[in-house]
TrEMBL record:
Domain of life: Bacteria
Entries under Gene3D superfamilies matching the protein: PucR C-terminal helix-turn-helix domain
InterPro entries: CdaR-like_regulators, CdaR_GGDEF, PucR_C-HTH_dom, PucR_C-HTH_sf, PucR_dom
Pfam families, sorted: GGDEF_2, HTH_30, PucR
The name this protein goes by in its record: Transcriptional regulator, PucR family protein
Domain CdaR GGDEF-like: 293-407
């Protein structure tokens, strides 16, 4: 199970018959990755850790200060130990060196007779290479067994149990925001210790704890830890953990895919829910059948339009839904999805408190837009409309209707930074109502026609100036800066506006009306462009 060899094992091999452990005897269990012969003092940049150093002491000879400096470097570089041939260049081990080595449990081994360093390195390196080959062979055997199990098992618990039995360690898993799961289940007293170890592992790397995230479609879905009680974990343990996590991700993805397909079969029930046909008791009963104990503190509906990355491409909607689901679950939402008229409709059931749902939803939408996951690669862009947040699940139809309206309004908006949330579309909602029940073009013309006609006739920029002047709350200095014109030119344009709109156009009520009409004009311009595209 380990590709390294301990110093304790090495000193039992040939060429180590006439040795003496003069310091650091408590560190003989240190693992050795490789063996180096070193005859210089400055070696800090040459070591990577766990090396056994062989030397005759040529670099420091009988200079105690250089000897101390040399040993400190080895300790800082996490070398495994030091073997010195006495007699050739070094006659004694200084007391300071012995004290430092004992303090750090750093083994110093003395050869009392001349030994062939080349044969020692050849012997140990052969052993290490054979061990590494055996590790690769064992790892391949584990992977084959795991792949066979993937064809037979139906629950991820079996994968984690198999890993625990194979390594004989404690396996701990955390799925999303749920509590830790232990394999095997420990006694109550031991659970507290394992909780503590798991928390400490999150803060600092430990030799007896290893952890690895389970990534699904670009997002962390779970985390698996292995905790050893008696021994330090080896590279082999880390490799087994990696193979286990990969198999676990495959199993979870397969399970989620099957669940998503099952959800698609329930689309008729979902359609009835969106239309307001289900009462609260029926909804609660259905949710309990999907996930026992599921408690939602309200919900909000989102309508999503997405553009395939390639024109005419058939996007795999199942994986797209899986990816979006993994994102939103990270932010405390239970996701229901359904396809309605070539749109993807998401019902975001809120599992947490209702106060911060919008902030969490915004972060989730940003991650979806960033296209971090596998599902995003087949999609070039998204547009979302988010409806009213409802506290009673039977009112989902209200949220759905307002989500549709929000999507329509954002499509007609003249700027891209407009909010996707229906509750934030204050003036646009008023514009939509006016446009449905009155001639909005005529109302806009009543207020802005003189300015529009002037610009057409003289190729002027009065409408742009009016918009900037109102945006800057009547500040001439800020308006001039925004329009990149001198103040004298601005004064001339304002005089023209006063002649066309009246000298009172900056008074409260009239100013508010003009601002609203400018927004309405942009709204109508975008709608006109959309109609031309449709034709």
């Amino acid at each position: 199970m380990k590709s390294y060899i301990s110093i304790e094992e090495i000193v039992k091999r040939k060429h180590f018959d006439h040795i003496e452990v003069v310091a650091g005897a408590l560190g003989l269990d240190r693992l050795v990755k490789w063996v180096h012969v070193v005859e210089v003092v400055q070696i800090k940049n040459l070591l990577r850790g766990h090396e056994l150093i062989l030397t005759t002491g040529l670099g420091f000879k009988d200079d105690p200060s250089l000897f101390v400096q040399f040993v400190k470097q080895l300790i800082d570089c996490e070398a495994a130990g030091l073997c010195i041939e006495i007699g050739t260049n070094t006659s004694t081990i200084p007391p300071d060196v012995i004290e430092i080595a004992n303090t750090h449990q750093f083994p110093i081994i003395v050869f009392n007779q001349e030994v062939p360093f080349v044969e020692i390195t050849q012997d140990i390196h052969s052993t290490l290479i054979n061990k590494q080959y055996q590790v690769i062979s064992d790892l391949e055997h584990y992977s084959q067994q795991l792949n066979k199990k993937l064809l037979e098992i139906s629950e991820y618990d079996e994968i984690l149990t198999f890993c625990q039995m194979y390594l004989d360690v404690q396996v701990v898993a955390r799925f999303n925001e749920k509590d830790l799961k232990f394999y095997p289940e420990p006694p109550k007293g031991r659970r507290k210790q394992l909780y503590k170890l798991a928390e400490e592992a999150a803060m600092d790397k430990q030799s007896k704890v290893a952890k690895q995230p389970v990534m699904l479609l670009g997002n962390q879905y779970a985390e698996v830890m292995i905790i050893s009680k008696d021994r330090d974990l080896t590279e082999y343990d880390f490799l087994i953990l990696d193979r286990t996590v990969t198999a676990l991700a495959q199993q979870l993805l397969r399970t989620m895919y099957v669940e998503e397909r099952k959800n698609a079969e329930e689309s008729q029930w979902m359609l009835d829910w969106l239309e307001g046909s289900h009462r609260e008791a029926v909804i609660d009963e259905h949710l309990a059948s999907l996930e026992p104990g599921l408690k939602l503190n309200g919900a909000v509906v989102c309508v999503c339009k997405y553009q395939p990355a390639r024109h005419g491409a058939d996007t795999d909607c199942t994986y797209l839904k899986l990816w979006i689901r993994t994102v939103f679950e990270q932010y405390g939402f239970h996701l229901f999805t359904i396809d309605v008229r070539q749109d993807l409709v998401l019902i975001l059931g809120n599992k947490r408190a209702g106060d911060d749902w919008k902030e969490r939803a915004k972060e989730a939408f940003e991650r979806v837009r960033a296209q971090e996951g596998t599902g995003g690669k087949s999609v070039s862009s998204y547009r979302f409309g988010v409806g009213k947040y409802i506290y009673q699940l039977e009112d989902v139809n209200v949220s759905y209707k307002t989500a549709r309206e929000a999507l329509l309004l954002t499509n007609r908006a003249h700027h891209k930074e407009m909010s996707m949330f229906y509750d934030d579309l204050h003036l646009y909602r008023i514009l939509s109502v006016i446009h449905q029940h009155a001639n909005l073009d005529e109302i806009v013309s009543d207020y802005l026609a003189p300015v529009i006609e002037y610009d057409k006739r003289y190729n002027g920029q009065l409408l742009e100036t009016l918009k900037a002047y109102l945006t800057c709350s009547g500040s001439k200095q800020e308006t001039a800066k925004r329009l990149f014109i001198v103040r004298q030119t601005l004064y001339h344009r304002i005089e023209k506006l006063e002649k066309l709109l009246g000298s009172d156009f900056m008074e409260a009520e009239k100013r508010l009306a003009l601002e609203f009409m400018l927004l309405a004009k942009d709204y109508l311009n975008v709608e006109e462009q959309l109609q031309k595209r449709t034709v």
